[in-house]
Hints:
Elements (H helix, E strand, L loop, with lengths): L7 H8 L11 H5 L4 E7 L4 H4 L7 H7 L5 E6 L6 H10 L3 H4 L5 E3 L6 E3 L9 H4 L5 H7 L4 E5 L7 H7 L3 E4 L5 H9 L4 E7 L1 H9 L4 H19 L5 E7 L4 E2 L5 E3 L4 H4 L2 E7 L2 E6 L4 H11 L4 E5 H6 L17 E5 L4 E3 L6 H4 L3 E2 L5 H4 E7 L1
Helix pairs in contact: 5-9, 10-12, 11-12
Amino acid sequence: MAGTICDVLPAAAALLGAPDATDSLGLVSAFGAKRRVMVLLVDGLGRHLLDDLGSEAPLLAAAAAGGAGRLQTLRCAFPSTTPTNLVSLGTGVAPGRHGVLGFTVNVPGTDTVLIHILWHDEPPPTRWQPIPTWFARLNAAGIPARAVLPTPFLTSGLTVAAYGGAELIDAGTGDYAQAMLDALAGGRGLVYGYVSALDTAAHRFGIGSPQWHAAAGYVDAVVTGLVDGLPDDTALLVTADHGGLNIAEPDHVDLDADPALLDGVRVIAGEPRVRYLHTAPGAAEDVRAVWAERLAGRAEVQTRAEAIDTGLFGPVRDEVRERIGDVVITCTGATAVMASAHEPPQISQMIGFHGAKTDVEMMIPLICFA
């Protein structure tokens, strides 16, 4: 296995002949130069989940079995959460550089918790995430880059951070594959799309549930539509942002139900599989010790410096260090750290989770059709 989500767009750009594009995934040698490339990111389609698909998703199941496309296994960025990985895909750099370091993070110098999927203008997206995206780099090189997105995403701060510089196209409510193919008809360039149905079903109903399999069928139909309409001069790359696992309620730890876990904690961020605890002055070591005892065998408990030194986030810019908690909790087994008094009730009701660094959360596919 080689490669990460950060390598996908540089490799796509290399297929298109973009300057300074590095193809570490071997796509150019496998497929040759292409006039057009489509990239479809399927939220929550972890590599191991491909093996759980059946008759409802025949094309993806065939890809898992080696009978369709060219399948590679990559790793996503840590934390294995959507905002972090959309920006790692878009910029081609690790989270320590782009600064979108989790599902939610504390805005340094405040008690505000930024929820990246609900983010608009504050903090200003280009200040919060200043790394140029590959969409912008392609357009600057005279290679059009377009992103076909659901309507609610068109004006979000996360879209600016992940896809800034792309021509944004409203996917509408019709045939998503056709919307991407229509965007491809604009000529040479890159067309990107995003599908969330599988991840939504995993969170609400659980991986392997009938609703999850139905969502997999929808994803398969989108991919099949793209493959069926794929022009000869075009490559289609299908990838994901993370995998996931089901965690039963008895394996939840509710930090708001245990006063000892809140002692010395000023701000709580992250998500159930990776928590960032921002502590009162001088309290970080005591907080770390209490959490390490409470979650022994169930989570890795580190100070910010320890987490950074292990390379979890890649090299970390000084400007973003404080977005990481003073104490970082990374669940290792089937454990979820809930914050029932700090988060919407939908979080506590989730069945499928992701965010930590287990293989089932971090391994993602790259399926290439050309």
